[in-house]
Amino acid sequence: MAVAEDLAPTSLKTHRYLRLSLVLIVFTLLLSVALQSIVVSWEPLLFGWRPLSSISHAFYTPARDVFVGTLMAASIALLALSGRSRSTTLLDICAIFAPLIAIVPTGIADTRAVGEIPCPTASECIPTEYVGGAKAGIAVYTVVVVVVVVTMAVIRRHPRTRDTAGVAARGSARSATLVSIIALVTAGTVTVLAFSPALKDGFPFNLWPVGSIHFAATLLFFGVFAAVPILHAGGPVEPGETPPSPRQRAIYRWIAGLLIVDLVVLVAALLFRQVFGETPVVLIGEAVALALFAAFWWVQTFQRWDDPNAPSLIGRVSSRT
Known about the structure:
Layout: H1 10-38, E1 39-42, E2 45-47, H2 64-80, H3 86-103, H4 111-116, H5 128-157, H6 167-195, H7 213-233, H8 246-271, H9 273-276, H10 281-303, H11 311-320
Antiparallel strand pairs: 1-2
Helix pairs in contact: 1-2, 1-10, 2-3, 3-6, 3-7, 5-6, 7-8, 8-10
C-alpha cells in the first residue's frame, strides 16, 4: 500500500526527492541549451536558430552558470544517494567525474565559436582567459576530494557511526575504499596534468591517450552510469528494495542498451567531426544521453517510492535490532 506523502518518514521523502531532483536537473540543463540555441542575443533580446556544437559548449555562452551549476548539483545528489550495493558504488564514482565536466571546458573546434572567442592556435583549444579558471577549479576540486575522503574515513571509524552488520559492513568498507581510491587517483591525475612543469603547457588536452580531460570525464561519467540500469534490470540491488516490475526491468535494459550505442556514436562523432560538418551530432548525442539518464531516475523514483528505509540506513537499523 502506498505511503501517504504526509505520513512518509523524512528518510523516505529525502530519497524520493533526491531521485526526482536528478530528473529536474537534466530538464534544467536541456532547457538552458535549448534557449541558448534559439536566442541569438540576450541584450537586446533577439531570436533565431543557432544550435550549439555540443551541450558542453554552453560553457562559452550565457548559459554557463546553469551548465556548471547543474553538474555540481548532480554530483551532490548522486553522492547523497549512498548505499551498499554495486549500483550506489557506481553512482558515487559518477559523482567523482561530474564536477570535472563542469570545471574543465571542452575545446573549441567550431569555426562559429572561434569567430567570437579566438584561439591562440588554429587547432582545438580553450581560450587563454579560461585556462586560469579551469586550473583554479582543479585546485579546489583536489582539496575538496582529499577533505571528503578523510572526513568520510573518520566518520566510518567513529563508534557512533561505524557499521557493525557483518557482511554488509565489509561490503560497505570495500565500496568506500574503492570510491576513495578512484577519487584520489582522479584528483591527483588532473592536478599533475594542470600544474606539472613538464605537462601543463598542453593542458587540458594532455591526457594520454584520450587527449581532452573534459571528453574523458564525460565518457567515464556516462560509461560508468550505463552499468547502473544493467544491474537494476536483473532485479533488486539493495536489501529491502521494492523489486522492479517486468516492465521496469525491460525499460532498464533499453536504457542501458541505448546509452551504450549512444556513447559509441558520440566517440565516432568526435573522432570524425570533419565528416559531419555543421550537423550537431555531438549535441544530439549528449542530449540523448542526458534524456536516458533522466529516464532511469524517473522510473526508479516510482519503483522505490514506498521503500521503507533509505539504503544508507538499513545496515545500522538491522544492526541495532
